[in-house]
Design goal:
Blueprint: E1 4-8, E2 13-18, H1 25-28, H2 30-35, E3 41-47, H3 65-80, E4 86-91, H4 93-104, E5 109-115, H5 123-131, H6 140-150, H7 152-173, H8 179-182, E6 189-194, H9 203-211, E7 215-220, H10 227-230, H11 232-244
Parallel strand pairs: 2-3, 2-4, 4-5, 5-6, 6-7
Antiparallel strand pairs: 1-3
Length: 245
Amino acid sequence: MRLHYERKGNGNEFIMLFPGALGSTRTDFLPQLEKFNDKDFTLFAWDPPGYGKSRPPHRPWPTKFFQKDADTAVALMKALNPDKKWNLLGWSDGGITGLIVAGNHPEIVRKLVVWGSNAYVTAQDIMAYEKVRDVNAWSEKMRKPYEDVYGEDYFRTEWSNWCDAISRYFTEFNGDICKDAIHKIECPTLVLHGMKDPMVPNEHPEYLKKEISDCETHYFPEGKHNIHMRYADEFNKVVNNFLLK
């Protein structure tokens, strides 16, 4: 399998950055790759199969695609450094993948940080996804980074495919994405959340806090879905302090 990744820093602690839906190293993590503490940490950001520069081939959308991405991420981390325990940072879909990795492979995870993520989907969530299915209704600022990577037509098609794929968790698995993995997470976990996130209602971080045995939370009162971009300095500081303590 051909996978694209970027590396930044020379610190002793390793971080793997997990992007959101159709995300890539450059669309999702510039504020971290450019500004995060690269003396104590070595950062790796990757493009999952079919995303960003991990093409061709085109993105596969199998049933339980999050679990497939988690398996691929584990293989990548073991190939990069089989002797390290990794710190996982995951946004949105990437956070879901990180939750699955941490639950199913505790032996390779030191700490976990997720934001804009959920362990299940509800009917309300599916309605929110349908509202954003038409990318032409997005603002140009929100849409352009993805169109620059994929082109307009390809991005429109793949975003619609993503909406269909995540909806299958609701129709085929009663909304359960990764509840079993959540209950197996042993590592210290930090859940960050924008209180005005239109894609992930506040019940989801509350569920994670309740179900993960060693879990802290940090909220951004005015934050939406992209708190690591909009509030990059605060985000980086909070995450840095959590990983170093």
